Amino acid sequence: MADGLTTGTLECLYTGSVWAEGPLWVPSSQTVRWSDIPNNRILEFHPGTGATREYAQDVEFTNGRTLDVDGSVVQCSHGRRRVERDKDGTVTGLVDSFQGHRLNSPNDVVIARDGSIWFTDPPYGILPGTREGHEGEQEYGGCHVFRLDAASGTLAAVITDLVHPNGLAFSPDEALLYVADTAGPGYGVPLRIVAYEVRDAVCGPGRVVVELPDGQAADGLRVDVEGRIWTSAGPAVRVYSPSFELLASIDVPETVSNLCFGGPDGRDLYITATTSLYRIRTSTRDAAGLNVPPTHH
Ligand code: MG
After folding, report:
1. What residues does each domain of the chain span?
2. Residue 184 Cα, ligand 1 centroid: separation in angstroms?
Protein backbone atom coordinates (compact mmCIF):
# COMPACT_ATOMS: atom_id res chain seq x y z
CA MET A 1 0.00 0.00 0.00
CA ALA A 2 1.45 3.34 -1.03
CA ASP A 3 0.33 5.28 2.02
CA GLY A 4 3.70 5.10 3.77
CA LEU A 5 2.13 3.56 6.86
CA THR A 6 2.91 -0.04 5.97
CA THR A 7 5.64 -1.70 3.97
CA GLY A 8 5.86 -5.21 2.63
CA THR A 9 3.02 -7.66 2.59
CA LEU A 10 0.72 -9.21 5.11
CA GLU A 11 2.12 -12.49 6.47
CA CYS A 12 0.11 -15.28 8.08
CA LEU A 13 2.12 -16.54 11.07
CA TYR A 14 -0.20 -19.09 12.64
CA THR A 15 -3.58 -20.68 11.93
CA GLY A 16 -5.48 -22.88 14.37
CA SER A 17 -7.51 -20.64 16.66
CA VAL A 18 -11.29 -20.58 16.75
CA TRP A 19 -11.51 -16.90 17.70
CA ALA A 20 -8.20 -15.15 18.20
CA GLU A 21 -8.25 -11.99 20.34
CA GLY A 22 -6.26 -9.90 22.77
CA PRO A 23 -2.79 -9.69 21.17
CA LEU A 24 0.06 -8.13 23.13
CA TRP A 25 3.79 -7.86 22.51
CA VAL A 26 5.54 -9.10 25.64
CA PRO A 27 9.02 -7.51 25.74
CA SER A 28 10.47 -9.84 28.38
CA SER A 29 9.94 -12.90 26.20
CA GLN A 30 10.01 -11.11 22.82
CA THR A 31 6.77 -12.87 21.91
CA VAL A 32 3.23 -12.02 20.89
CA ARG A 33 0.73 -13.39 23.38
CA TRP A 34 -2.94 -13.73 22.46
CA SER A 35 -6.17 -15.46 23.45
CA ASP A 36 -7.94 -18.24 21.57
CA ILE A 37 -11.12 -17.58 23.49
CA PRO A 38 -13.44 -20.52 22.61
CA ASN A 39 -10.55 -22.97 23.00
CA ASN A 40 -9.94 -21.46 26.44
CA ARG A 41 -6.21 -21.07 25.95
CA ILE A 42 -3.48 -18.49 25.51
CA LEU A 43 -0.97 -18.76 22.65
CA GLU A 44 2.44 -17.21 22.10
CA PHE A 45 4.24 -16.60 18.81
CA HIS A 46 8.01 -16.25 18.89
CA PRO A 47 9.19 -14.24 15.86
CA GLY A 48 12.77 -15.37 16.39
CA THR A 49 11.89 -19.00 15.73
CA GLY A 50 8.59 -18.57 13.90
CA ALA A 51 7.04 -21.03 16.34
CA THR A 52 3.73 -20.73 18.17
CA ARG A 53 3.22 -22.55 21.46
CA GLU A 54 0.43 -22.87 23.97
CA TYR A 55 1.32 -20.51 26.81
CA ALA A 56 -1.52 -21.63 29.09
CA GLN A 57 -4.78 -23.57 28.95
CA ASP A 58 -7.96 -23.66 31.06
CA VAL A 59 -7.53 -19.91 31.46
CA GLU A 60 -11.21 -19.03 32.04
CA PHE A 61 -11.61 -17.43 28.66
CA THR A 62 -9.13 -14.58 28.68
CA ASN A 63 -9.60 -11.79 26.16
CA GLY A 64 -7.76 -8.44 25.88
CA ARG A 65 -4.49 -7.70 27.64
CA THR A 66 -1.97 -4.93 28.14
CA LEU A 67 1.49 -4.42 29.56
CA ASP A 68 1.98 -2.89 32.99
CA VAL A 69 4.98 -0.77 33.89
CA ASP A 70 6.62 -3.63 35.82
CA GLY A 71 6.48 -5.89 32.75
CA SER A 72 3.60 -7.98 34.04
CA VAL A 73 0.54 -8.53 31.87
CA VAL A 74 -2.91 -7.30 32.88
CA GLN A 75 -5.65 -9.27 31.15
CA CYS A 76 -9.42 -9.69 31.04
CA SER A 77 -11.09 -12.99 31.95
CA HIS A 78 -14.65 -13.60 30.78
CA GLY A 79 -14.97 -16.78 32.85
CA ARG A 80 -13.81 -15.24 36.11
CA ARG A 81 -15.62 -12.01 35.24
CA ARG A 82 -12.58 -10.07 36.31
CA VAL A 83 -9.43 -8.21 35.38
CA GLU A 84 -6.34 -10.06 36.51
CA ARG A 85 -2.55 -9.87 36.48
CA ASP A 86 -0.18 -12.47 35.04
CA LYS A 87 3.25 -11.95 36.55
CA ASP A 88 5.69 -14.58 35.33
CA GLY A 89 2.86 -17.09 34.96
CA THR A 90 1.27 -16.48 38.36
CA VAL A 91 -2.24 -15.12 37.88
CA THR A 92 -4.00 -13.03 40.53
CA GLY A 93 -7.30 -11.13 40.43
CA LEU A 94 -7.38 -7.33 40.48
CA VAL A 95 -11.11 -6.57 40.37
CA ASP A 96 -14.29 -8.61 39.82
CA SER A 97 -17.17 -6.52 41.19
CA PHE A 98 -18.72 -3.08 41.12
CA GLN A 99 -20.80 -1.84 44.05
CA GLY A 100 -21.28 -5.40 45.27
CA HIS A 101 -22.31 -6.84 41.89
CA ARG A 102 -20.17 -9.02 39.65
CA LEU A 103 -18.75 -7.51 36.49
CA ASN A 104 -20.15 -8.80 33.16
CA SER A 105 -17.14 -10.12 31.24
CA PRO A 106 -14.25 -7.65 30.95
CA ASN A 107 -13.16 -7.49 27.33
CA ASP A 108 -10.23 -5.15 26.80
CA VAL A 109 -7.89 -3.10 28.95
CA VAL A 110 -5.35 -0.27 28.83
CA ILE A 111 -3.14 1.29 31.49
CA ALA A 112 -2.68 5.05 31.77
CA ARG A 113 0.65 6.65 32.65
CA ASP A 114 -0.53 7.16 36.22
CA GLY A 115 -0.82 3.38 36.55
CA SER A 116 -4.61 3.30 36.57
CA ILE A 117 -6.26 0.39 34.73
CA TRP A 118 -9.10 1.24 32.32
CA PHE A 119 -11.26 -1.58 30.96
CA THR A 120 -14.51 -2.28 29.13
CA ASP A 121 -17.23 -4.64 30.37
CA PRO A 122 -19.65 -5.80 27.64
CA PRO A 123 -21.67 -9.03 28.09
CA TYR A 124 -20.10 -11.27 25.43
CA GLY A 125 -18.78 -13.79 27.95
CA ILE A 126 -22.11 -14.28 29.77
CA LEU A 127 -24.67 -14.27 26.93
CA PRO A 128 -26.98 -17.27 26.45
CA GLY A 129 -25.16 -19.96 24.48
CA THR A 130 -21.81 -18.22 24.73
CA ARG A 131 -18.70 -20.14 23.70
CA GLU A 132 -16.55 -17.41 25.26
CA GLY A 133 -17.31 -17.89 28.97
CA HIS A 134 -20.21 -18.99 31.14
CA GLU A 135 -23.83 -17.90 30.85
CA GLY A 136 -24.81 -15.43 33.52
CA GLU A 137 -26.71 -12.30 34.49
CA GLN A 138 -25.73 -8.67 34.01
CA GLU A 139 -25.70 -7.96 37.70
CA TYR A 140 -25.14 -4.19 37.85
CA GLY A 141 -27.47 -3.54 34.95
CA GLY A 142 -25.19 -1.91 32.41
CA CYS A 143 -22.04 -2.24 30.33
CA HIS A 144 -19.62 0.34 31.62
CA VAL A 145 -16.07 1.43 31.07
CA PHE A 146 -14.26 1.36 34.39
CA ARG A 147 -11.14 2.92 35.87
CA LEU A 148 -9.37 0.95 38.56
CA ASP A 149 -7.03 2.94 40.75
CA ALA A 150 -4.45 0.24 41.18
CA ALA A 151 -2.95 1.81 44.28
CA SER A 152 -6.17 2.27 46.28
CA GLY A 153 -8.26 -0.45 44.63
CA THR A 154 -11.05 2.07 43.96
CA LEU A 155 -13.21 1.21 40.96
CA ALA A 156 -15.04 4.05 39.18
CA ALA A 157 -17.52 3.81 36.29
CA VAL A 158 -16.10 6.43 33.90
CA ILE A 159 -18.34 5.79 30.86
CA THR A 160 -21.92 4.54 31.18
CA ASP A 161 -23.56 5.59 27.90
CA LEU A 162 -22.22 2.97 25.47
CA VAL A 163 -24.13 -0.18 24.58
CA HIS A 164 -21.27 -2.69 24.23
CA PRO A 165 -17.95 -0.95 24.93
CA ASN A 166 -15.12 -3.10 23.61
CA GLY A 167 -11.64 -2.00 22.43
CA LEU A 168 -10.14 1.14 23.94
CA ALA A 169 -7.00 3.28 23.68
CA PHE A 170 -5.78 6.70 24.77
CA SER A 171 -4.55 9.45 22.49
CA PRO A 172 -0.78 10.01 22.93
CA ASP A 173 -1.33 12.87 25.41
CA GLU A 174 -4.09 10.90 27.21
CA ALA A 175 -6.47 13.83 26.67
CA LEU A 176 -8.85 11.54 24.76
CA LEU A 177 -10.02 7.99 25.36
CA TYR A 178 -11.27 6.18 22.27
CA VAL A 179 -13.75 3.37 22.87
CA ALA A 180 -15.23 1.02 20.29
CA ASP A 181 -18.92 0.22 20.68
CA THR A 182 -19.59 -3.13 19.01
CA ALA A 183 -23.34 -3.35 19.70
CA GLY A 184 -24.37 -2.20 16.22
CA PRO A 185 -27.66 -1.74 14.38
CA GLY A 186 -29.39 -4.61 16.19
CA TYR A 187 -29.25 -2.38 19.26
CA GLY A 188 -30.24 0.77 17.41
CA VAL A 189 -26.76 2.25 17.15
CA PRO A 190 -24.14 2.12 14.39
CA LEU A 191 -20.87 0.30 14.90
CA ARG A 192 -18.71 3.16 16.06
CA ILE A 193 -15.71 4.60 17.82
CA VAL A 194 -16.53 7.24 20.44
CA ALA A 195 -14.02 9.76 21.81
CA TYR A 196 -14.21 11.04 25.39
CA GLU A 197 -12.22 13.94 26.80
CA VAL A 198 -10.38 12.85 29.91
CA ARG A 199 -9.58 15.29 32.69
CA ASP A 200 -8.55 14.39 36.23
CA ALA A 201 -9.51 10.75 35.60
CA VAL A 202 -13.05 11.71 34.60
CA CYS A 203 -14.54 11.37 31.11
CA GLY A 204 -16.57 14.17 29.53
CA PRO A 205 -19.41 13.58 27.07
CA GLY A 206 -18.74 11.16 24.22
CA ARG A 207 -18.43 12.21 20.59
CA VAL A 208 -18.85 9.68 17.77
CA VAL A 209 -15.72 10.06 15.63
CA VAL A 210 -15.91 6.99 13.39
CA GLU A 211 -18.90 5.02 12.14
CA LEU A 212 -18.35 1.66 10.49
CA PRO A 213 -20.56 -0.40 8.15
CA ASP A 214 -22.64 -3.18 9.64
CA GLY A 215 -20.50 -6.29 10.07
CA GLN A 216 -17.24 -4.33 10.35
CA ALA A 217 -16.93 -3.78 14.07
CA ALA A 218 -14.04 -1.81 15.56
CA ASP A 219 -13.53 -4.57 18.11
CA GLY A 220 -9.95 -3.78 19.09
CA LEU A 221 -7.94 -0.63 18.41
CA ARG A 222 -4.57 0.98 19.10
CA VAL A 223 -3.18 4.50 18.75
CA ASP A 224 0.27 5.16 17.30
CA VAL A 225 2.81 7.81 18.32
CA GLU A 226 1.39 10.23 15.74
CA GLY A 227 -2.09 9.87 17.19
CA ARG A 228 -3.48 7.75 14.36
CA ILE A 229 -6.10 5.14 15.25
CA TRP A 230 -5.50 1.59 13.98
CA THR A 231 -8.69 -0.43 14.29
CA SER A 232 -10.18 -3.74 13.32
CA ALA A 233 -13.01 -3.33 10.79
CA GLY A 234 -14.39 -6.65 9.58
CA PRO A 235 -11.93 -8.31 7.16
CA ALA A 236 -9.58 -5.32 7.35
CA VAL A 237 -7.54 -3.03 9.52
CA ARG A 238 -8.43 0.64 9.05
CA VAL A 239 -6.18 3.55 9.95
CA TYR A 240 -7.67 6.95 10.82
CA SER A 241 -5.89 10.26 11.25
CA PRO A 242 -6.08 12.17 14.57
CA SER A 243 -8.87 14.16 12.88
CA PHE A 244 -10.62 10.89 11.95
CA GLU A 245 -10.03 10.81 8.21
CA LEU A 246 -9.59 7.33 6.76
CA LEU A 247 -5.92 7.06 5.77
CA ALA A 248 -5.54 3.40 4.88
CA SER A 249 -7.28 0.07 4.82
CA ILE A 250 -5.32 -3.17 5.02
CA ASP A 251 -7.21 -6.18 3.68
CA VAL A 252 -7.02 -9.31 5.80
CA PRO A 253 -8.35 -12.70 4.65
CA GLU A 254 -10.42 -13.21 7.83
CA THR A 255 -12.48 -11.08 10.19
CA VAL A 256 -10.12 -9.07 12.38
CA SER A 257 -10.71 -8.90 16.13
CA ASN A 258 -7.79 -6.92 17.44
CA LEU A 259 -4.20 -5.81 16.86
CA CYS A 260 -1.03 -4.65 18.56
CA PHE A 261 2.30 -3.12 17.71
CA GLY A 262 5.36 -5.14 18.61
CA GLY A 263 8.55 -6.73 17.44
CA PRO A 264 12.07 -5.76 18.53
CA ASP A 265 11.63 -2.13 17.42
CA GLY A 266 7.88 -1.96 18.03
CA ARG A 267 7.05 -1.34 14.37
CA ASP A 268 5.48 -4.67 13.44
CA LEU A 269 1.70 -4.75 13.53
CA TYR A 270 0.34 -8.06 14.77
CA ILE A 271 -3.27 -8.80 13.89
CA THR A 272 -5.56 -11.42 15.43
CA ALA A 273 -8.18 -12.47 12.88
CA THR A 274 -10.53 -15.38 13.59
CA THR A 275 -8.36 -18.50 13.13
CA SER A 276 -5.04 -16.77 12.51
CA LEU A 277 -2.30 -14.39 13.60
CA TYR A 278 -1.01 -12.01 10.91
CA ARG A 279 1.80 -9.47 10.74
CA ILE A 280 2.61 -6.47 8.57
CA ARG A 281 5.54 -4.07 8.84
CA THR A 282 4.69 -0.43 9.61
CA SER A 283 6.50 2.90 9.82
CA THR A 284 5.22 3.67 13.31
CA ARG A 285 4.73 2.21 16.78
CA ASP A 286 2.31 2.30 19.68
CA ALA A 287 1.76 5.56 21.54
CA ALA A 288 1.47 3.65 24.79
CA GLY A 289 5.17 2.83 24.62
CA LEU A 290 5.46 -0.95 24.42
CA ASN A 291 9.21 -0.65 24.29
CA VAL A 292 9.44 2.54 26.27
CA PRO A 293 7.60 1.89 29.53
CA PRO A 294 5.57 4.90 30.71
CA THR A 295 6.89 6.84 33.65
CA HIS A 296 4.76 6.92 36.76
CA HIS A 297 4.18 10.26 38.38
MG1 MG B 1 -12.61 -7.11 22.10
Report:
1. 11-281
2. 14
Tens of pLDDT along the chain (297 residues) come to: 457 899 989 999 999 999 999 999 999 999 999 999 999 999 999 999 999 999 999 999 999 999 999 999 999 999 999 999 999 999 999 999 999 999 999 999 999 999 999 999 999 999 999 999 999 999 999 999 999 998 899 999 999 999 999 999 999 999 999 999 999 999 999 999 999 999 999 999 999 999 999 999 999 999 999 999 999 999 999 999 999 999 999 999 999 999 999 999 999 999 999 999 999 999 999 998 644 444 443
Q: How far is the CA of 53 from the centre of ligand 1 (A)?
A: 22
Per the CB < 8 A criterion, the answer to whether 258 and 274 are in contact is: no
The burial class, CB within 10 Å (0-12 / 13-18 / 19+), for 96 is middle
Measured in angstroms, how far is the CA atom of residue 181 from the centroid of ligand 1?
Answer: 10
Question: Which homologous superfamily is 11-281 in?
Answer: TolB, C-terminal domain (2.120.10.30)
In this structure, how many other beta carbons lie within 10 angstroms of the beta carbon of residue 271? 29
DSSP state at residue 149: -
Q: How many A from CA of 13 to the centre of ligand 1?
A: 21
- Terminal C-alpha separation, the chain: 40
CB atoms within 10 A of CB 173: 10
